[in-house]
Design a protein that fits this description.
The structure is a single chain. Helix content is about 45%, strand content about 0%. The chain is mostly helical. It folds into two domains: about 10-50, no CATH class; about 65-110, no CATH class. α1 crosses α2 (about 35-40). The radius of gyration is 23 Å and the shape is elongated.
């Protein structure tokens, strides 16, 4: 699962351009007039939840981590290798995850398809 460091859309701050301008002013940073203009009128803000420009936007998942795992398991089976799927929610460095997931525990939870 991918985790975003951005705040949820309903908590997104509408004043990032103002923050940037404050920093520019505080440190006396010279900006091209076009860039300064974008910040001053707020055109550089990200689109927020409820914006009319999002009315026709949609999300379509064409592949998921689980689908990738199942496809890899199929290839492994076809090559004569028995896969052990631990699920698509495991994150981290392989050596760390390996310490937390003893094989005996993993085998009791594994499935080749969902």
């Amino acid at each position: 699962m991918t985790r975003s460091t951005s705040p949820p859309a309903d908590r997104a701050r509408p004043d990032h351009c103002a923050d940037a301008l404050a920093i520019v002013r505080r440190y006396g940073i010279e900006l091209p007039q076009e860039v300064r203009s974008v910040l001053e009128i707020g055109r550089g803000e990200s689109i927020k939840s409820g914006d009319a420009r999002l009315a026709r936007a949609g999300i379509r998942l064409i592949a998921t981590p689980q689908m990738a795992l199942e496809a890899a398991a199929k290839v492994a089976l076809e090559a004569g290798i028995t896969p052990l799927l631990l699920g698509d929610a495991i994150e981290g460095e392989a050596r760390e995850v390996g310490r937390r997931w003893p094989v005996s525990r993993a085998r009791s939870r594994s499935t080749t398809t969902r």
